Write the C-alpha cells for this entry.
Amino acid sequence: MRILVSNDDGVLAPGLAALADALATLGEVTVVAPESERSGFSNALSLDRPLRPVRQANGYWAVNGTPADCVHLALNGLLDFEPDLVVSGINSGANLGDDTLYSGTVAAAMEARFLGKTSIAVSLAGPGARNCGKDGYAAAAATVVRLIEGWDRLQLPNRTLLNVNVPERPLQDIRGFKVTRLGHRGRAKDVMTLEDPRGREVYWIGIAGEPADAGEDTDFHAVHEGYVSVTPLQVDLTRHEALQDVSRWLKDL
Ligand code: MN
C-alpha cells in the first residue's frame, strides 16, 4: 500500500513524524507537507504564485503552500504514482464540530476526494488547545494503524472522508471507537484588541466557541468520554432538504 501523508502543522511537526513512522509499518509512505504551520487555512489553494517543493534530508517534501496545495500537488504532478490512501495529521489539537470548516488537517484529506477512495484526517484532542505531547501522538498513531488494518472491509461512497479525533491519554485508557456526527460550537470568544508597536489598534481572532451541541452522538461527546471519534464527512455542501422550499419560492417570484 502506498500512503500519502500531509498535515497543516508543517513539515517539522511531531504529529506528522509520529503518523508517518507508524504508517511505514503498513506500506510505503510519502510525506508532502507545508514548510511551516498552516493551521486554519481550510481548503485554500495558492493561485497567485508558484509552489516549490523542497526535498528534506529525511525524504519529506516541504512545500511553500497550504495543506490543500500539498495534496493537490502530490496527486497532480509531483508524484509519479497515485497513492492508495491519503492520511492527514496528526494535528496538534482537536478538530471537532465546526472546527472542520476551518481545519487544514481536514482539508488535506478532502483534497484527496478525486482519488475515489476514502481518506483520513487525524487530530489529537489534548486537554489544552496546543498541549499535545509525544506519547499522545504515539497513541493516536497506533489508533490510525488499527483503522487502516481494517481498511479493506470499509466500503463508502466516493468523496467521503473520515474525520478522526483521538483523546490524548495513554493507549490503554482509550475506551474504543465511536462513530459520531459533528457537533456544533457556539460563537467564538471575542477578538482580542491590541495596540501595535506604532500605536495602531489591531485585533487577534479569539478562540473557538464552547460546544453548543455536544449530544451523545456527537464527536465532542465521544472524545470527552475517552473514545476515538470517527465521523464520516462528505464534500457536498448542498442542503438537499431545502431544494423543494427554494424551488417553490423561486416559482412565485
Ligand atoms: Mn493544525
Q: What stands out?
A: DSSP finds seven helices and 13 strands in the chain.
